[in-house]
């Protein structure tokens, strides 16, 4: 069994926590966009209160461990591994509760090349204990506004994990596709599940728009978030997101495998 001490050491060695690759400049830019209510930073959250840049910095210092000094504007950002471990424990608790109920779940990621394995392992473990891993709206087109203009993507599932592909290059069984922070895919998936009259997820697990979009619609949602993802932590502070785990979301995919093992063990799931 992977202990908290062993995982803490791994978080620091892999730069999932501690000094991370996400720069302070990138994080501060996201806080400015969020304060201006730019949809690119909101990713599905509709904040109840005004969040200025200083308030966001204070929140991210409290939730992630980034420097609270507004004068620190360049260099690497930092995630406190103790906050990551505490949030992973809360994350695992929510998954364990869903597993004990045999609850239907929905998993989705906007970082398939990095995080698909993490969520896929959770999907496998949840399925093994009797949870239905939902795959609504597979193949459905989703129009998403990107910096290159309006692009059409296809909603797909790999190992039970939702992601979006560019239809002209995506094929079943090929490598997962697009990097996407939009909440539109989860909205399409949830609407399709409701229209089909089948089960709706009692827990949504993912990142970015998958968590924020589902949480804003009233679904219990938990996920991973980097220092430049203030939306999930604002959602958590306002009660829209149940758990946001601070972790660098851009390291090598195999570095997330110990996190899967830790969560599965903590949630008392069998693989």
SSE layout and pairing:
Blueprint lengths: L3 H10 L4 E6 H12 L3 H4 L10 H11 L12 E4 L1 H21 L3 E4 L3 H17 L12 E6 L2 E10 L2 E5 L18 H13 L6 E5 H9 L4 E5 L4 H8 L5 E4 L10 H10 L5
List keywords for this structure.
271 residues; alpha/beta; 7-stranded mixed beta sheet; two-stranded antiparallel ribbon; 10 helices; globular
Write up this protein.
42% of the residues lie in helices and 18% in strands. It has 271 residues and is α/β, with parallel strands linked by helices. The chain has one domain (4-266). It has a seven-stranded mixed β-sheet. The longest helix has 21 residues, at 81-101. The radius of gyration is 17 Å and the shape is globular.
The biggest sheet, with number of strands, parallel, antiparallel or mixed sense and barrel status, is:
7 strands, mixed
- Poorly predicted parts: none
Q: What helical percentage do the residues reach?
A: 40-55%
Q: How far is the N terminus from the C terminus?
A: 13 Å
Shape: globular
Q: What number of domains?
A: 1
Q: How many helices?
A: 10
Beta fraction of the residues?
Answer: 15-25%
> What is the residue-averaged pLDDT?
94
Number of DSSP E strands:
9
Oligomeric nature of the chains: single chain
Sequence of strands across the biggest β-sheet = 4-5-6-3-7-8-9
Please sum up the structure shown.
This protein has 271 residues and is an alpha/beta fold.
């Amino acid at each position: 069994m992977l202990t908290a001490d062993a995982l803490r050491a791994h978080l620091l060695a892999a730069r999932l926590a501690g000094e991370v690759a996400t720069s302070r400049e990138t994080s501060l830019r996201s806080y400015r966009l969020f304060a201006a209510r730019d949809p690119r930073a909101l990713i599905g959250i509709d904040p109840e209160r005004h969040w200025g840049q200083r308030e966001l910095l204070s929140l991210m210092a409290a939730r992630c461990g980034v420097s609270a000094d507004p004068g620190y504007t360049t260099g690497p950002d930092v995630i406190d591994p103790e906050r990551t471990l505490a949030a992973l424990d809360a994350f695992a608790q929510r998954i364990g509760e869903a597993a004990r109920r045999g609850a239907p779940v929905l998993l989705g990621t906007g970082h398939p090349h990095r995080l698909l394995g993490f969520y896929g392992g959770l999907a496998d473990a949840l399925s093994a204990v009797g949870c239905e891993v939902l795959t609504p709206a597979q193949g459905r087109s989703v129009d998403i506004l990107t910096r290159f203009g309006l692009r059409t993507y296809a909603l797909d599932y790999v190992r039970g994990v939702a992601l979006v592909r560019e239809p002209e290059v995506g094929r079943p069984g090929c490598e997962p596709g697009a990097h996407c922070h939009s909440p539109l895919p989860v909205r399409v998936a949830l609407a399709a599940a409701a229209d089909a009259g089948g089960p709706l997820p009692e827990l949504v697990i993912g990142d970015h728009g998958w968590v924020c979009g589902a949480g804003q619609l009233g679904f219990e949602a938990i996920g991973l978030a980097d220092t430049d993802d203030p939306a999930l932590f604002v959602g958590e502070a306002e009660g829209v997101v149940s758990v946001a785990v601070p972790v660098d979301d851009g390291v090598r995919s195999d570095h997330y495998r110990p996190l899967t093992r830790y969560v599965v063990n903590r949630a008392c799931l069998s693989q």
